[in-house]
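Researcher: Here's a chain I'd like modeled. Treat it as a single chain, no partners, no ligands.
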Amino acid sequence: MCSKFCNDWFWSIRPVSRKPTRLEDIALLAGVSISTASRALNDHPAVNDRTKQLIWKLAREHDYPFRRYMPAGPIGAEATIALVVPRPQGREGRLSDPFFLELLAGVGEAARERGCDLIMSHLAPATYEDVAAAMTTSRADGVIFLGQSTLHAAFNRMVETEARFVVWGAELPDQLYCSIGSDNINGGRRATLHLARLGRKRIVFLGDLDPPEAMQRHRGYLDALGELKVAVDPALIVDAHFEVESAEASVEALIRRGVAFDGVVCASDQIALGAVRALQHAGRSAPGDVSVIGFDNVPFSRYSSPALSTIAQDTMKAGRLMVSKLLDHGGDTVGRSARVPTELIVRESCGG
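Model: Modeled as a single isolated chain. Structure tokens:
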């Protein structure tokens, strides 16, 4: 390695105007050949980590345009995975969404177990062109899209040329790409049947029917009614976005219209919390008057009052599945979708 004297000498002979730093200059400062400096900047495995770190440090200090050469994440990682969050359908586009944070933790833990780095993309794709940009401009080894939103057709199109991605979401009939998601249909079915076993006769489904996962939870609700030989009452299928305030307003409107109901199956825990608040404001109790059950099992569900009964999604298992799909199949994720089982968690809000 070049000594401090070499470094001082190099800068002493440079013109005061300081011409742009060249690759040759970085190599001289590091005491390595130009080819070694180039390999280090490109994260070539033939160059040891210590030399790479030195050359990147010198490049940064001397304003060499090194960033285009840098790897997607810190050196030493087995792989780098990019996380891309599409503009959501049926939820606000906030990274603070409780279920999103749980899912992000699952992916993060799985990546760490595999010695991988995670990078969060600034992109929020809403079109095929956005999805293509997220894939073709990423230097990561694979991309996880946390949500399908309205991009089902775009993902199907993308997989024709690039299969280096996995999507968190529902599995749809004409799907070509790999998705990992919960068994939403069975979750909605189990929630509805549980309320029926408690003696509830008029059970509301509360949620937005457009997002694929909520649509499948509604399908489970309908399947349960079919098993019970109970006619579907359109008045009991109530729209609500994945927000506490939206659900609260929807249930308040249902009460004002005088619709009789004694149970509520909610498409998320946030929706369930809104339903409970609306009941309390109307002088009704959960579960005394109305049994309420949510979906997601986010942390606040066990600490609310009453504690929410819910359908749990195994976000840790989901994270491991998404990471393994990217790393264990050589980038060929096509046709390798999987569902994570759901679990009924009984707490106070349903009464048994």
